[in-house]
Amino acid sequence: MVKENHRTTTPRSVWVSIVSESLQQQHITFPFLRSSTSRNGSSSKNGHKLTILRDLEERLLNRESLKSVARSHGVDPAQLRRWRRDREKLEMSSKGNKTLGKGRKSSITHLEELIIGWALELREVGIGISYSRLQVRACQVDENFRSKPKEQQYHTIRRLCMSNELVVRRGTNVAQDPPQQAIDQAREWLEEIRPFISVPDLAQIYIINMDQTPLPFSLASQSTLELRGTRSVTIRQSGNSKTRATASLAVAADGSKLKPMIIFKGEPRGTIATRELPVSQYANQLALCCQPAAWQDNENMLMWIDECLVPHIQQRADGAPVVLFLDHFRCHYSDTVKAKLDTIGVQSKLIPKGCTSVVQPIDVGVNKPFKDRIKSQWWEWMIGFGEDGGNIPTPSREDVQHWVIEAWNSIGAHIIQNAWRKTDLSYFPEE
Q1: Backbone angle region of 81, left / alpha / beta, with phi > 0 → left and psi within -120 to 50 → alpha
Q2: 31-44 b/e with 16+ CB inside 10 Å = b?
Q3: Which of 194, 205, 279, 299 suits 187 as a labelling partner, its CA being 20 to 30 A distant?
Q4: Residue 185 C-alpha from the chain's centroid
Q5: Beta partners for residue 392, in sequence order
Q6: Which pTM does this prediction carry?
Q7: d(C-alpha 395, C-alpha 240), whole Å
Q8: Cross-strand bridge partners of residue 214
Q9: What is the CA radius of gyration of the chain?
């Protein structure tokens, strides 16, 4: 329980203003009253500088000197003259900027792609990042950076983030765009795309949608039925309940399914990826790989094209078009992925941001039944350990592979066709 403190206090800025006004009459200044500027004025926000300049104009009309005004605000007269000279620039950059300059250039700009690019990929999937996390990343990719003092590392990373417009933001729980806006945007996109996919030589089997969905190793609910009045409620979970993988699923408009891919956590060329996964009993039915964070990246996206997409389209007639719908996940539209798709004659179409829940077939009608079937598999697996109350181990990677195959095979063509149909008929009902 949070205790509320109803005591009211005078903000320090108000207190400083009161004391400053009192001391101005006595022509006295104190360094501690310079709360808005440092010795060179660099910490004063541009908006506050403009406030001081407006006060200067008024007091100059009353025949006060610039030095006396500077003294009353605790700034150097030369500094005040510079502000007057740069007033136009201050007015143009007064919203939130602290200074006119951008600061010292980062000393690790050569690592921008490895650090900032990596950070943006994390943000694409909603992973929280921090200066310290990027500091660790920089130490991993650059030996010279690792040899620097920790404090210097931190400030170097912070400077690099600022130069790339990366700032600290608090997570929001409210949708950024109104639902109607997404619907209107989706409608406009569908009106543009439907003539493209309605050409006679484009078979439905070659109209494909691909997306990723998380695969938690434990799907235990946080709530349960229990007798009223029970003081302690326990819910059994399997070990490492936060471990997860990622499934990359793809479906075609005719109701057919492409081979699924599972991305486990691990090094792409580590022991799991090179020794365990290739000898799995399910290796022929799944595309299996590893990634340090267990999500889709540029490398395993190329692998998905080779092992899942190419086998699906290899029987097409020469020159027959293929369309692949993807969302705005970063690796879906990288230069290497685009080049790969162009090489095999596949046209990729990006679904507008914020519209996947209404126009992406996998989101609309496939992910939910797939996850329900995965949970049923996990439930049967949990019950198999009986009621002795002992510790339940973490599901193995082969367990997860088995669940995915069983769940994917049980998704009927009618479920997939209905998902495609819903994305179309939601906005173009039959007359």
Answers
A1: alpha
A2: eebbebbeeebeeb
A3: 205
A4: 21
A5: 238
A6: 0.61
A7: 9
A8: 246
A9: 30
Two tokens at 331? 């690796």
Domains and CATH numbers, the chain: 12-92 (no CATH), 109-163 (no CATH), 179-219+238-385+392-425 (3.30.420.10)
Residues 6+ apart with CB under 8 A from 278: 288
Largest CA distance in the chain: 93
Q: What is the 3-state secondary structure (H, E, C) of the chain?
A: CCCCCCCCCCCHHHHHHHHHHHHHCCCCCCHHHCCCCCCCCCCCCHHHHHHHHHHHHHHHHCCCCHHHHHHHHCCCHHHHHHHHHCHHHHHHCCCCCCCCCCCCCCCCHHHHHHHHHHHHHHHHCCCCCCHHHHHHHHHHHCHHHHCCCHHHHHHHHHHHHHHCCCCCCCCCCCCCCCHHHHHHHHHHHHHHHHHHHCCCCCCHHHEEEEEEEEEECCCCCCCCCCCCCCCCCCCCCECCCCCEEEEEEEEECCCCECCCEEEEECCCCCHHHHHHHHHCCCCCCCEEEEECCCCCCHHHHHHHHHHHHHHHHCCCCCCCCEEEEECCCHHHHCHHHHHHHHHCCEEEEECCCCCHHHHCHHHHHHHHHHHHHHHHHHHHHHHCCCCCCCCECCCCHHHHHHHHHHHHHCCCHHHHHHHHHHHHHCCCCCC
Tell me the CA end-to-end span of the chain in Å, nearest whole number.
58
Instruction: List the structure tokens of 111.
Output: 């690592």
Residues comprising the chain, all counted: 431
Reading the chain (431 residues) residue by residue, the pLDDT tens digits are 433 444 444 444 544 454 445 444 444 433 333 333 443 444 457 778 888 888 888 888 888 888 888 888 888 888 888 888 888 777 776 554 445 455 556 677 778 878 888 887 777 666 778 888 888 888 888 888 888 898 888 888 888 888 777 888 777 654 456 666 777 887 888 888 887 777 778 888 999 999 999 998 877 666 666 667 767 766 666 656 668 899 999 999 999 999 999 999 999 999 999 999 999 999 999 999 999 888 899 999 999 999 999 999 988 877 788 999 998 888 888 889 999 999 999 999 998 888 888 889 999 999 999 999 998 888 888 877 755 555 678 889 999 999 999 999 999 999 999 999 888 644 443 43
Name the packing angle between helices 66-73 and 12-24 (round to 10°). 140
Q: Please report where in the chains the tokens 């209905």 appear, as a residue.
A: 418
Residue 350, both tokens: 């990006």
Q: How far apart are CA 382 and CA 376, in angstroms?
A: 10
